[in-house]
Write a structure and sequence with these properties.
The complex is a heterodimer. Helix content of chain A is about 70%, strand content about 0%. By secondary structure, chain A is an all-alpha fold. In chain A, α2 packs across α4, α3 packs across α4 and α6 crosses α8. The radius of gyration of chain A is 19 Å and the shape is globular. The chains are: A mainly alpha, B mainly alpha. Chains A and B meet through α2, α3, α5, α6 and α8 of A and α1, α3 and α4 of B.
Chain lengths: ~190, ~140
């Protein structure tokens, strides 16, 4: 009777986090492989900068590594990790603003970019600028619902608010964007 | 449940049915094709399209390795530098300003210490230097 072999790709997140507490490098690599991509995209949409986003994601994994033994698993790993990323992104933005550090716009070099990509970059920059003008909570609500595809319940849980409060943040955020767009057209 | 609530929901969740919360999709189906509903959804669609203008970048192949390396890096000067005040790591002009203010504070502190020791009736030059250098023997005299 041979033992059933479980591939690490099939191991649930919660088990991998438990392995992190035992300083298991394979578990760390697997969690980074599994969640590093979306974490970086989310952090970039929150901070507006790929470079700050990578710093935020590294810090989030560092926290996970250092406190894995205290993780209680009361919510899904992804919900919990979104929350960590959100808090770190907000802290980092506040720190940079209070110290007047310039926020990186993340724009490509126009001379080295094909026209179609340049147009995409310009559109992205407009959206990024519009989202940056929103209050943090409204931006986070829009990013979680529109880009991340989180359900109403999950987005509310990540932000630690009720679903009604989330709907209100989304309404106000989109209303502000509508005003900004109107201003651009006139 | 009426068109007013439909408008509120479109204002929060946009024009795409799949983005609406499950319990509200029945309302979507009831009003989406009505003349009033079409106008509301067209307005919401403009915001959706605007937001869609920010496409996600292609995944960075080296990112995972960099994250693992950062987590495994010892808590050395590199990480401390990353957390250092912006004034010490920012633009050259800000760095110069930071060093100048640090120098000013340091010289003011030295002046204060020298003045304080002179006032304490101990005029031996060696004693001032010992105090500045943190000599325990001299410190005991002030305790």
């Amino acid at each position: 009777m041979g033992r059933a072999v479980t591939r690490i790709e099939d191991v649930p997140d919660e088990t991998l986090v438990a392995a992190l507490a035992r300083r298991d490098q394979r578990a760390l690599a697997q969690l980074v492989q599994r969640h590093g991509g979306w974490a970086a995209r989310f952090a970039e949409r929150m901070t507006g900068s790929p470079h700050i986003a990578e710093e935020v994601v590294q810090n989030a994994f560092l926290r996970l590594w250092n406190s894995a033994e205290h993780w209680e698993g009361r919510s899904r790993f992804t919900t919990w990790f979104y929350r960590v990323l959100h808090n770190l992104a907000v802290d980092e933005l506040r720190r940079r603003r209070s110290s007047h550090e310039e926020l990186d716009e993340g724009l490509e070099d126009p001379a080295a970019t094909p026209p179609q990509l340049l147009e995409q970059e310009r559109n992205a920059a407009r959206v990024r600028a519009a989202l940056e003008r929103l209050p943090e909570r409204q931006r986070a609500a829009l990013v979680l619902r529109h880009y991340e595809g989180c359900s109403q319940g999950e987005a509310a849980q990540i932000l630690g608010i009720s679903e009604g409060a989330l709907e209100s943040l989304l309404s106000r955020g989109r209303a502000t964007l509508r005003e900004q767009l109107r201003g651009e057209l006139h | 449940m009426d068109i007013h609530r439909f408008s509120e929901l479109a204002g929060a969740h946009g024009a795409a049915r799949e983005r609406w919360p499950e319990p509200d999709r029945e309302l979507y189906d009831r009003f989406a094709a009505s003349p009033e509903g079409l106008g509301i959804l067209a307005d919401a669609e403009r915001i959706d399209a605007f937001l869609d203008g920010w496409q996600a970048r292609a995944d960075d192949a080296g990112r995972a390795a960099r994250i693992v390396a950062a987590v495994n890096a010892p808590a050395d000067g590199a990480r401390d530098a990353a957390r250092a005040p912006a004034s010490l790591t920012g633009s050259p002009s800000r760095r110069i300003a930071a060093w100048l203010s640090t120098g000013f504070v340091a010289s003011a502190l030295c002046g204060f210490l020298l003045g304080f020791t002179q006032a304490s009736a101990n005029s031996d030059d060696e004693t001032y230097m010992d105090l500045l250098l943190g000599s325990n023997t001299v410190m005991e005299e002030f305790l």
